[in-house]
Predict the 3D structure of the following.
Amino acid sequence: MAARLPVYRTCKAPRVFGSPCGHLLEGTAQTCEAHQGTDPSRQCVAEVPRQGVRVRCHAWPVRDLPHCRDHDPVTVAVRREEQQSARARIAKVRQAVAAASPLVRARVLDLLVVERRVDLGAVEAAVRRYQMLG
Ligand SMILES: [Zn+2]
Ligand SMILES: [Zn+2]
């Protein structure tokens, strides 16, 4: 009995710099979920920096809209907002740590570990991410 090889189809929607998305497609879908509702006859109007020059984004825009999902002004604003809130959280934690006395400062991490808010796996994974750079 000859085994039927599964036919793999991948999403052909171009990414920002023109390479295909490559996401594996399910059933008869023509694009992956992220690229559904996009317009293959147009190109996103956003310009992105590449090697010092600004190039037009190759991605397909959302149907009836000028931008691809990544460059939609709402997405851009939400992303900026999230980064700002992350930065604000980091700053507040740093302030709280800095305001504590040196003795307390040394206990804070221990207390967070005891309370299971920080665990060894998370710390080791974070350390590994920096060692990758070294
Ligand atoms: Zn895709
Ligand atoms: Zn775009």
